[in-house]
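Hey, quick one: can you model this chain's 3D structure?
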Amino acid sequence: MKPQGVVLIASIAAAGHALAVLVRIALAVAILAVAAPRADAKPTCRSGHTEFTHGRTRIFSAHHKTEWWICSLRLRRPRMVGYPTDLIESMFGWQARGPRVAWQHDWIGGDEAGWAVGWVDITTGASHEVTVANTDGLTDIPYTDGADAIALASDGSIAFVVKEPDPAVDQLIGYVPYAGRRFGEPRVLATIDAGDAVPSSLATDRGVVTWRTTSGGAGSVPIG
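Sure thing. Here's the predicted structure for all 224 residues.
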């Protein structure tokens, strides 16, 4: 049997050791709280993953690609691009022209899927977007996985080429007009039965959408 004094000393030592451990844990938690970035912290122009650059313009994704932001010569603080849906989504097909950068935006979640086009003004940060096709049938454009290509016009309108849903082989040449402060309704301008338009050749300006064919021919359709 140990003397009571020995037991008391051992108890005090054990308590002191436990207190030291607790102090160390508290210090570690405090350090982590200071060092770790907050989940809701605002991004900077050096944040995220770069998705697109053009001159002094940088568009980047953040929060596991659930948000997209832009910085530019005029935008020294990040401005959010587009309109996140909180579904599984992506933004891609970035294309710069004049003061705008255009994109495609697609999403899927639950029983809904769709895709849109839009652009952001690199001088003001203002974004505009419109749904082109949706599984709910919100537009007259048949739903597919998205356009094969888009073309941004100088006035902010956007042309697109998209393959018809399988098993069809034809392509649709479509157009989304922009007038003033918003996009108009997406519409089909032409159907290419042979499906031989080269997506990367799509262009639009001065009231006409143009493209090249795989055989080297030229195609065009007035916007009208």
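One thing worth noting: The longest strand covers residues 88-97.
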